[in-house]
Write a structure and sequence with these properties.
alpha/beta; about 325 residues; 2 domains; 13 strands; binds uridine-5'-diphosphate-4-deoxy-4-fluoro-alpha-D-galactose; Rossmann fold; globular; single chain
């Protein structure tokens, strides 16, 4: 049985579905503070906060073999305003999980880390051995959690894989689950809101960066490719007695303008694009060197930006009844 914290959220629910398709049993632990109950369509569900001492009941009830830990706050801007909230939820609650895992002899952990642990990268594409210098509390909360995992593994009888996600995007191709944040801050859903006329326009946060068209470049990765990497990470932990850290991106960068153009092409909708101020803390470029995960786990991404936008568009139309 695989325990999925945050399994009612965006990436957790897609991974839950992928695990079921691959024949694994799961139990979702989610307090529904950010997630959606109707995203839990597979496996068991237990309503707990990961920081709760009652979480022990879940470990007592199920024979848990591994934990995939998605539950976290994810908004960089909010983390700057409320750092304690981020350290408590993202770091301290993970310690509670680790304590219970030790107590119940659960020795495999897959962690949702982030490209934000690098801060402003020293070189592009980013390799895992670059210095970790997070520039906001969100990235910092994930960084210290990675350190806690490293120390835990050094003690023995415990291994982890930390997956440093780049820009998760796209949705389930069956339209059963998708991306839904409140408030929404991510680029692609906001562009699609402009496409359906829910927003008047889409703002580009700065067009004076040192990039070919002046807008920020990111590495967008389909959520199903992320889910697949989690399954491969689990299988790796089952077969190898070692911990590891992997970047998880397509290895290809797209500028904000290129993403907007792709959305216009896929949707066939035109909408206004406005150039706005830079957003604080946005590095000009974030592109993964994903060769390590490709080689070690045999992971290959299946979906490019057009598929990412097509799937997101399908979901967006569905939730807006179009
Ligand atoms: N952007 C705009 N206009 C918008 C929204 C975003 O121009 O209305 C730009 C951003 O400035 C950025 C790019 O689009 O250059 C992507 O922005 P997102 O907010 O979609 O994603 P981020 O790259 O900021 O964030 C992602 C994850 C975070 C994670 C971060 C790590 O979504 O959870 O990468 O760097 F913390």
């Amino acid at each position: 049985m695989i325990l999925i914290t945050g399994g009612a959220g965006y990436i957790g629910s897609h991974t839950n579905k992928a695990l079921h398709k691959a024949g694994y049993d799961t139990v979702v632990v989610d307090d529904l503070s950010k997630g959606y109950e109707n995203f839990i369509k597979w496996g068991n569900f237990e309503n707990y906060n990961t920081g709760s001492s009652d979480l022990r009941e879940v470990f007592e009830k199920y024979d848990i073999d591994a934990v995939m830990h998605f539950a976290a706050f994810i908004s960089v801007g909010e983390s700057v305003e409320f750092p304690q909230k981020y350290f408590k939820n993202n770091y301290k609650n993970t310690l509670n999980l680790l304590k219970l895992m030790r107590e119940f002899g659960v020795d495999k952990f897959i962690f949702s880390s982030t490209a934000a642990v690098y801060g402003n990268p020293q070189k592009i594409p980013i390799t895992e051995d670059q210095d970790l210098k997070p520039i906001n509390p969100y990235g910092h909360s994930k960084f210290i959690t990675e350190k806690a995992l490293q120390r835990e593994a050094e003690k023995g009888d415990f291994n982890y894989v930390s997956l440093r996600y780049f820009n998760a995007a796209g949705c389930d191709f069956d339209g059963e689950i998708g991306e839904l944040h409140d408030p929404e801050t991510h680029l692609i859903p906001l562009i699609l809101d402009a496409a359906i006329g829910k927003r008047e326009s889409i703002s580009i946060f700065g067009d004076d960066y040192d990039t070919p068209d002046g807008t920020c470049i990111r590495d967008y990765i389909h959520v199903n490719d992320l889910a697949d990497a989690h399954i491969k990470a689990y299988e790796y932990l089952c077969s190898e007695n070692e911990s590891n850290v992997f970047n998880l991106g397509n290895g290809e960068g797209y500028s904000v303008r290129e993403v907007i153009d792709m959305c216009k092409k896929v949707t066939g909708c035109d909408f206004e694009v406005v150039v706005d101020e830079r957003r604080d803390g946005d590095p000009a470029r974030l592109i993964a060197d994903s060769s390590k995960i490709r080689e070690k786990l045999g992971w290959t991404p299946q979906y490019d930006l057009s598929k990412i936008v097509e799937s997101a568009w399908m979901w967006h139309k569905k939730i807006n009844s179009i």
